[in-house]
Amino acid sequence: MTQQAAKIGLLGAGTVGSSFLELLEQRSDVFAKPSGILVRDPNKARSASVVADKVTTDPEAVIAAADIVLELMGGTDLAGDLILTALAQGKRVVTANKAVLAERWQELRPYLAQGLLYFEAAVMAGTPVIGPLTGALRGSSPLELHAILNGTCNYILSQLELGVTYQEALKEAQRLGYAEADPSLDVEGFDAAHKLTILARLAFDPDIAWESVKARTRGISQLTPAIIKEAMEDGGRVRLVGSVYPQDGAWQVEVCPVYLPAAHPLAAEASNRNGLVFYGDAVGQVFIAGAGAGALPTASAVLADTIAALAARPGPSLLPAAVPVPLDYQAEKLGEIA
Question: Is the CA virtual torsion 282, 333, 250, 150 positive or negative?
Answer without folding.
Answer: negative
